[in-house]
Amino acid sequence: MARGTYATINLDALVYNFLQVKHLSPRSKHVAVIKADAYGNGAIPVAKALTPYTNMFAVAFLEEAIALREAGITLPILVLQGPYAYQELENTKTLNLHWVLHTETQLAWFSEYLSHSDIQGHQWVKVDSGMHRLGLPMNEFDDLMRRYPTVMSNKCVIMTHLAAADEDDQTQTNIQINSFLSKVSASDFALSIANSAGAIALPKARQNFNRIGISTYGSTPFCSDRQITLRPVMTLSAPIIAVREIPKGDTVGYGMTWQATKPTTIATVAIGYADGYPRHAQNGTPAVLHNRRISLVGRVSMDMITYDISNVENVKIGDMVELWGNQLPINEIASYVGTIGYELMTRVSKRVPRKYIHAKEKT
Asked: Which residues carry out catalysis (predicted)?
């Protein structure tokens, strides 16, 4: 019998979230970003659920695209990091891939590929408008367009990535958008600017293609909740495997970092940092048991966490604890451990089974 620790993935909530953002920009096409195993939610089930609603998918690199094709996913796939070698381009037609080209080397590879291929419109050229991570320098755009005319033709999508669209102060983001548009909008290119935050909050970023990632999975991209209501997709749960009473003054866990200030009921829960729960979660980080909040006490171990459950009655071994999800926003847990919801989702390890449900089912 399995230990009972699992991540429940609500596919109805997933679709709801995607459509919430999509409906903000009805004239745009939409790219569902499912890199990193759909942010830990499972790329293949997520792709199957979103296929009726998206125009294409996006992954980080070729191997992620191949896995989708082997699972029968047929929509076009955008490879966000582009080709790592010229030979990867030979998969363009057979796998129906679109490539983000962000270096001059990649432009040269694709130019060579086009010289012996009849394929059209499978190139996205990325311009660095201020993120300074990937992309061709803005001041070289015109020169590169002259030197690689077959690549940077009207069959091409020109894209950029916003550095701070999720911040409350949009001053720098608007500067970035305006700088990008002033450079490329005079040409007859399809454009892509918006990520989740841009698609939700910045009408000017909603161009021909929007790339929708984190919002699909129910985590707001913003530093504060605003703009849109999203439903949690992943609920991480684990069972209680031991309950004990400890007296005032006793400590819990490695390093004796938490000491009881009064007689306390402690529950040990079958999940730990090997499952992806952050080891650096502090005393007081919440979870939910029997619809009541409980507090983490002691250090997170490899396979177990301990909680003070003194405020909850009638607890027994096997009762389920929610680490985040329906009753506890993942971004709240992220704030306790100094990270973001993206990281928590993608950290959930393969030894935690994913259970796929629809909204009408109980978690």
From this structure: 35 (proton acceptor), 254 (proton acceptor)
